[in-house]
Amino acid sequence: MNEAPKPLPDNVDGEHALALFTEMVRVRRFEEKCAEMYSKGAIRGFLHLYIGEEAVGTGIMQSVAPQDAVVATYREHGHALLRGIPMNVVMAEMFGKQEGCCRGRGGSMHLFDKDTHFIGGNAIVGGGMPVAVGYALAASMRGQDAVAWCIFGEGAMAEGEFHESMNLAALWQLPVVFCCENNFYAMGTALERSESETRLVEKARSYKVTAEVVDGMDVLATEAAARRAAESTRTGNGPYFIEFQTYRFRAHSMFDAERYRCREEVHEHELHGPLRIFAARLQASGLLDDEKRAALEAEIAAEIDAAVAFAEAGTPEPVGELTRYVYSEAHV
Amino acid sequence: MNSTATEGMREITYREAAREALHEALTNDDRVFLMGEDVGRYGGSYAVSLGFLDEFGPDRIRDTPLSESAFVGAGIGAAIGGMRPIVEVMTVNFSLLAADQIINTAATYLHMSGGQFNVPLVIRMATGGGLQLAAQHSHSLENLYAHVPGLKVVVPGTVEDVRGMLLTALADPDPVLIFEHILLYNRKGVLPVQAGAVDIDQARVRREGTQVSLITYGGSLWKCLDAAEVLEQQGIDAEVLDLRTLRPLDDASIMATVTKTRRVVIVDEGWRSGGISAEITARIHEQAFYELDVPVQRVCTAEVPIPYAKQLEEAALPQVSDIVAAAQRVVNGHG
Q1: Looking at per-residue confidence, does B5 or A282 come out higher?
Q2: Using CB atoms and an 8 Å cut-off, which of residues 271-330 of chain A contact chain B?
Q3: Calpha distance A68→A229 (Å, rounded)
Q4: What is the number of alpha carbons within 13 Å of residue B17 lying toward its C-beta?
Q5: Would you tell me which of A264, B53, B138, B299 could form a disulfide with B61, CB atoms 3.0–4.6 Å apart?
Q6: Is CATH 3.40.50.2300 the right assignment for the domain spanning B10-192?
């Protein structure tokens, strides 16, 4: 960046800003450790990293209330941690251990947590959207003040399930916040190669859904957009759509050779990455210095090391348990 | 089973029985609601929910857009959110548009989440041929869903079952798919005045016999009972086993009838290749091979998309004469 970083606006609480930054760093470092563990063979299968997109999930989760549900995608480690699933059980799940949040049955792409109404971890693009609509329908029918936060990538907007779900949520005026994480690539297919209309908000507006587009690299912008969405949705104005424009710094998964984009393009985005720009602003506001940063990093590193140790020490789910949870046990 | 009402019994159509079950469920449990294409103002494509909109209101009798994937998936989400949705899919052919939600979501969430998220969802759909509705409204695809762990698949053939199975399905913590054969809606049967929930995990012998077992379910049940009457006149004593549930299959009842008669004809409106009849045949061979006197025979739908013209459709679907001929073959030792 050539320009000097802007200090934070006066109305932003310094402690809160630092907390946002810490959460983003926590997600980033967790995923870097996951990549390392993948290289060592401790994590297998698909591993989709959120690196570069942390400001989106971090901003959204500030408005997610305890009674709300979150329905996410297969790139959901960050959402799971930000929602409050303990890092130990997330890491143990990545290791396929009994102590994992899904007892090793879900893995990286299928993190679930009943306590926080975290309804996956869905690896069918668009597949979680009708479920979010249904959760909102239940909340609405039961008179509960709960919002369903439906997180998906821009690739999902080419799926029929996006259009069906958007129509149903709008038709029935349900409390769903549709959060589109637009990282501009559906796996290796660029947005302009998959959508005839690349102004994604127009698709939402065609269903008479309030829609806005925000800079997904700016955590204050994502937080503010989520707050507007929550206020609108909780006051009975039906669904809301936000397009968060962001970028994925790493490959789609560990199997991706990245033939579809050049290194320079990635580098350009990295220069404007969410951690980098927000750290600079915190520094410009006198909220962060080298010492504070080091302390914060050390604390996160300790938590991650403990999570790895927890996962390594975990119990492999016994093969004898293979067929448990195909059907509910209380009924068998 | 005769259709004359006796004391403590009453005569009722399959449609009425399905309707009574829905009515009872909606009346007794605020969490229950019905959702699907044309279930409200239209009254249901097979008129099962006629009048419900006025009685229960649009919140609980929900007409949906033609979005099978969204409204089946919304049923899953609503079930997780504490409701007890009954989703109606007009016909099994349309359910393929929601196959993602049924197979990738409803069937997987409990296991994938390590036991955290069960999906207490009931999906009803019409199945089967015989009304000249051609190749996109006549197929019997229930075996596709019976293939999938995590789902339960029930196929009521009687008025008692179509009434009682819905109530049992609603009490089940996991997804249950109910397949109602289109030719049964107008069929009459007798029902105890105090009819209620019935089990959904056991097959039932609908007619006792000693020489050949006709193993079947759903719409084919009545063809098998008719075939058994014809066979009786020819001096052949046929047993008819109604499977009632395709997942889980009741192996014990299947092996019991095989052991009893030693001759088997499986009658299934699905296609033979990769069908439920193939699965049952395999299980008999695995578990009761030495009880058989002759190889298992199958009467299935011809391997064609079901055609429109009456004579072609009749030729495609299993008929009483086909069942009689198959039973004669096995009894005469020519299986």
Answers
A1: A282
A2: 324-330
A3: 13
A4: 31
A5: B53
A6: no
Query: Which residue type is seen at A85?
Result: I
Q: d(Cα B334, Cα A254) in Å, to the nearest integer?
A: 59
pTM as predicted: 0.96
What's the complex ipTM?
0.96
DSSP string, A199-249: -HHHHHHTTT-EEEEEETT-HHHHHHHHHHHHHHHHTT---EEEEEE----
Domain ranges of chain B: 10-192, 204-331
Q: Note if B181 is an active site residue.
A: no
Write down the pLDDT at residue B3: 46
**Under 8 Å CB-to-CB from B71, ≥6 apart: which residues?**
A130, A168, B35, B36, B37, B64, B65, B87, B98
In tens, the pLDDT along B149-194 reads: 999 999 999 999 999 999 999 999 999 999 999 999 999 999 988 8
Tell me the domains of chain A and their CATH numbers.
14-314 (3.40.50.970)
DSSP element (H, E) containing B122: strand B122-127
Q: Which of A106, A161, A165 sits opposite B113 (nearest CB)?
A: A106
- Distance (Å, rounded) from C-alpha B98 to C-alpha B100? 5
Q: What pLDDT band is residue A275 in, cutting at 50, 70 and 90?
A: very high
> Measuring CA to CA, how many Å separate B207 from each of B5, B188, B202, B226, B242?
19, 18, 15, 11, 9
pLDDT band at residue A331 using 50, 70 and 90 as cut-offs: very low
Among chain B residues, the shortest Cα distance to A124 is held by B104
Residues 157-196 of A with CB under 8 A from B: 160-161, 164-165, 167-168, 171
CATH number, domain B204-331? 3.40.50.920
How many Å apart are CA B183 and CA B318, to the nearest integer?
A: 13
Using an 8 Å Cβ cutoff, are B327 and B255 in contact?
A: no
Token digits for A133?
């609509």
Contacts with A229 (C-beta within 8 Å, 6 or more apart), sequence order: A63, A177, A240, A242
Report the half-sphere exposure of B1 (CA within 13 A, side-chain side).
Answer: 24
